[in-house]
Amino acid sequence: MLRTALRVVLVLLLVLLVGGVGAAVWVRMTLHGSLPQTRGIEEIPGLSAPVTVVRDALGVPTISAISRPDAARALGFVHAQDRFFQMDLQRRQPAGELAALVGVRALAADRAARVHRFRTVAERALAKTSAQYRAVLDAYAAGVNAGLAALDAPPFEYLLLRTAPEPWRAEDSLLTVLAMFNTLQGRQAAFERTFGTLRDTLPRPMYDFLTARGSAWDAPVVGDALPRPPIPGPDVYTLPRARVARASRLGDVAAWPEPLPADEAAIVGSNNWAVAGTRTASGAAILANDMHLAINVPNIWYRAVLEIGRRRIAGVTLPGLPSIVVGSNGDVAWGFTNTGGDWSDLVIIEPDPRDPGQYLTPDGPRAFETFSETIAVSGGAPETITVRATVWGPIIGTDHRGRELAQRWVAHDAELLASDVTRPERVTSLEEALVAFAGLGIPAQNVAIADRSGRVGWTIAGPIPNRVGHDGSVPASWADGTRRWDGYLRADAFPRIVDPEDGRLWTANAPVVTGDALAVLGEGGYADGIRARIIRDRLRRLERATERDMLAIQLDDQGLFLERWRALALEALTPDAVRGHAGRAEFRRLVETTWTGRATPESAAYRLVREFRSELSRQVFDALTAPAREADPDFDFGRALRSEGPLWPLVTERPAHLVNPALGGWPEQILAAVDAVVSTLTRDGGRLEERTWGDYNRAAVTHPLGAGLPVLGRWLNMPRDPLAGDIYTPRASSPRAGASERMVVSPGREQEGILHMPTGQSGHPLSPHYRDQHRAWVSGEPLPFLPGPAVATLTLVP
User: What distances in angstroms separate CA 166 from CA 89, 92, 299, 300, 615, one per listed residue?
Assistant: First the structure.
């Protein structure tokens, strides 16, 4: 019996071993089967002539074709083979179709997205595209599907999710554009609600003081620094003790589980600038651009070169789109930053008093449109929601008074979305570029332009609403017709800067212009001008700039912004203030003796000053905006983005009527912020000197399927590198966001250019190009703008 049992056990072990080995072999073969094809010949229906795809040592493709549709077809092929899962997520997010792929955990995101009915918008836009652009979109979609079909196995993510990829459709490229609208403008409704709640709950002078754009850091390219209103006096607004006691978070360490608030760490912004040939060593204009976005695995961008006939367009593409997003075509180079302008308005709905099923419009009462949206859920039952819409846009929620709000947003306009995003690839001069970018169907961007003749310019890429009767800063009723959008500005009416006198221009999400030009753009969430001012000052110190000089500015991690906050903290930490307070004494020692003035990973002093400023800002604005939070529990002043403008005058002028009366005065308020930082950073028994900037600012660059699964995460995610820089330095970085690319290029001299990005070209962890550009991005090592020598050639034939 024992021998028989042993034989059975041995057989079972052998079966398990063989089965395990077989499963491992099958998994490995399947994973290898989803690697892209980089050599040989592949037939693709629809090509008009053969296309070559030459890859360099980093996997960057150069696609050579005789026509734009053929180039789009080939680009779709390589995008699909390297990045299809990323493309799938990007089309599903605005369409509200994520739950169909990943299950119930995405339902909340899908419900919010379905309100906008973006798939319907994309379908309508596709029908409005020109024949030329439609041919490019159709060719790209066919190329994507050919690339998927040519893989021996689907991308590995679908193996893990136990599903199959769905074919790409032409309208999915328009959904990819709408995903960028969500990324770059999706916060504007919350921003406007924040301003609306503040205006309704605070005296008007206090509202103006908190929301004015200007600060001491303003650095517009044209115009003077924006003026700031004075601090309102005690006759306008005083902090009542009872209200502050209810609203204050002082001492509530558990309310702030992260050293820095998550919304601050995820700020989306960018830098770009252009220097005319009169200011460069080569005599050619130079463009620099680093777009700050959430950084995931794979990176949002995909490097590529398109050679179409005699024209070469090089730069970065967005998988899902058939175009170069930023780059150079040999005659003109361009780069983007988010504007901070206002591209969305909230409309307060006035119900018809005689019929609650209708609402008032300039043309009389109208019935709400209603739509049923069914959301598929992987592994669960589908869910159907009802979406209501008005003549201005969908109902997206209510305000603090319970009034329904509709959203008028450029992203809902199918006519705009139908515009040809490949248009900039064909421009040959600065003047042509200014016209090509105006009104383009993309999220409105500051576009910095340099052309081959050495000239530089700036304008807005994207549509600009023509507002009538209002400035769009707060929700308002449009029922009587006095407030409205009267279409969009014509291209010749767009704000422009052409050939600036000193040969330099710069943008960094702060106002670029002032006066009437700024009023045209509106207020949609500008950043303080901190990065813009540092960039301006560094550019002005360069008389004969080079590409390496531009990269040095992109990598600038000097903490100039926090210098005065350091001085403020040291001023407050007097001998009397630190006596008997070991934490305060250690805070002062580190800030006084170890400060280098840079946001470097090893600096504890930088982190302490940074945390001190953030904590004091939270405390001050929590108290000042308590009435708004009482009116709306979801109110968050952090959505206003700018805080330095009102904060610095408060902490330096120190009005007695605007300090927390429970603390006694401003010196006590400032020390309370120091104490909160010390308490937070040492609550686990650690020492302040161990709480370095790199301890917090550590990269969290993760794959969507590797974020919550430790075993997969070690395989899929990038290393947890301590990062230099901060959102207040040109080298913008936070754990989850930062420079998604750094580009420096001179049109006509692309061989001298620089371009690098996090992660790598491939989304496949077994590819050598999954992470081979990441180390250069972390260290700031320059990589060439153009691809290197060929290492693999694939020929696509009809």
Answer: 11, 11, 22, 21, 47
Tell me the DSSP string of 301-368: -EEEEEEETTEEEEEEE-TTSSSEEEEE-SSEEEEEEE-----EEEEE--EETTEEEEE--TTS-EEP
Helices (H), ranges, 546-581: 547-554, 563-572, 575-578
Distances (CA, A) of 401 to 348, 476, 624: 11, 13, 20
The confidence score (pLDDT) of residue 381 equals 95
**pLDDT at residue 8 is higher than 60:** no
Total Cβ atoms within 10 A of residue 462? 28
Rounded-to-integer distance, Cα 554 and Cα 447, Å: 17
- Report residue 3's pLDDT band, with 50, 70 and 90 as the boundaries: low
Output the CA angle 204-206-212, nearest 5 degrees: 95
As a whole number of angstroms, the distance between CA 638 and CA 541 comes to 34
- Range of 114-123, 249-258, 632-641 with top mean pLDDT: 114-123
In this model, does residue 17 exceed pLDDT 70? no
CB of 209 within 8 A of CB of 368? no
pLDDT in tens, 392-420: 999 999 999 999 999 999 999 999 999 99
In the numeric block, which tokens belong to residue 529? Answer: 């001008």
Task: Kindly report, residue by residue over 260-305, the tens digit of the pLDDT.
Answer: 344 444 456 799 999 999 999 999 999 999 999 999 999 999 999 9
Task: State the pLDDT at residue 27.
Answer: 55
Please list, in sequence order, all residues whose beta carbon lies within 8 angstroms of the beta carbon of residue 642, skipping any fewer than 6 positions away: 213, 215, 526, 527, 528
CA-wise closest residue to 206 among 514, 628, 617, 619: 628
More confident residue, 729 or 709: 729
Residue with tokens 């080995």: 21
At 464 the three-state DSSP class reads coil
**Rounded to 5 degrees, what are φ and ψ at 7?**
-60, -45
Ranges of H-type helices in 129-203? 131-150, 156-161, 170-185, 188-201
Query: What pLDDT is stored for residue 4 in this prediction?
Result: 56
What lies within 8 Å, CB to CB, of 496 at 6+ separation is 434, 457, 458, 459
Find the largest Cα–Cα distance for the chain.
98
For residue 612 the two structure tokens come to 């001190």
- C-alpha 422/C-alpha 303 separation (Å) is 16
Mean pLDDT of 356-369: 96
Of 70, 173, 80, 90, nearest to 129 (Cα)?
173
Flag whether pLDDT at 779 surpasses 80: yes
Q: What is the mean pLDDT of residues 593-608?
A: 98
**Residue 5 clears pLDDT 60, i.e. is over it:** no
For range 119-138, the mean pLDDT: 98
CA angle at 12 for the pair 7 and 14, rounded to the nearest 5°: 95
* pLDDT score of 639: 79
Contact between 462 and 440 (Cβ < 8 Å): yes
Side-chain half-sphere exposure of 624, counting CA atoms within 13 A: 30
Q: Is the pLDDT of residue 500 over 50?
A: yes
| Contact yes or no for 378/102 (Cβ under 8 A) | yes
> Residue 641: pLDDT above 50?
yes
Q: What DSSP assignment string belongs to 648-694?
A: HHHHHH--GGGS-TTT-SHHHHHHHHHHHHHHHHHTTS--GGG--HH
H-helix or E-strand spanning residue 793: strand 792-797
User: Which one, of 146, 63, 37, 163, lies nearest residue 767 by Cα?
Assistant: 37
What tokens does 337 get? 């930053």
Give yes or no for a contact between 165 and 158, defined as CB atoms under 8 angstroms apart.
yes
What count of Cα atoms within 13 Å lies in the side-chain half-sphere of residue 454?
Answer: 10
- Residues 565-589 as b/e (b if ≥16 CB within 10 A, e otherwise) read bbebbeebbeeebbeebebbbbbbe
